[in-house]
């Protein structure tokens, strides 16, 4: 088994009839990293997660999770996975506690863990409330609780913050970071570029089934910083745009020396701008 990597994806291709959904995807995720697969709806993100979690057998290529071929995943591997997918699998008539109790019994987790994880996701006061009475944000936190309560080595999160309010998204991000701090590997799909820039160690931009760019978010943005300019907001409200070069250093120093500067920003693009440049498509 590879001691350094949690997931290896080697030339994965997926076709449905005449339609190619994924084409020659190759990626490696190191243990303990947060990886983001970014792309608009229909790019193939969910299809790749289904292959990695054994729900779908690929047309070609090979993928391994914790050293095991994803076409041959066993219960011992599944017990090391946590999943937050589009189908929540919650039982609406059961309470939060009873939903987690069913899961705890399947995975032989001590029942004492239930209150602990409900507290961690901010649902302890709602432990006896039926799922049907929960808000969308509370449901998502309950799904996160179920995914985390057995301390998985790998978390698969398919659009975990989709359509949630900013406060709930922030809470979910904190939970993700806490799991990473414990050593978990996180495979995240999202079309939210800001989410990816905040959370991910590495990202891959996926367009029409192909990876068009891969790397650390900040390095990708710098790579496509063709403008390479500095924007300075002065205290009198004026805005000055200068080329980020040695020739501008004197002017910038002069503005700081005269205490005129309110703020200063470089103009490197964000991930969404890079994606638009590479593909001509917006994230929608």
Task: Kindly describe this structure.
The protein has a domain at 226-267. The mean pLDDT is 90. Strands 6-7-8-3-9-10 form a 6-stranded mixed beta sheet, with helices on both faces. It has a 4-stranded antiparallel beta sheet with strand order 2-1-4-5, with helices on one face. A 3-stranded antiparallel beta sheet has the order 12-11-13, covered by helices on one side. Strand 7 (154-158), helix 6 (166-181) and strand 8 form a beta-alpha-beta unit. It has 284 residues and is of the alpha/beta class. The chain is 34% helix and 29% strand. It has 10 helices and 13 strands. The chain starts with a strand and ends in a 5-residue tail after the last helix.
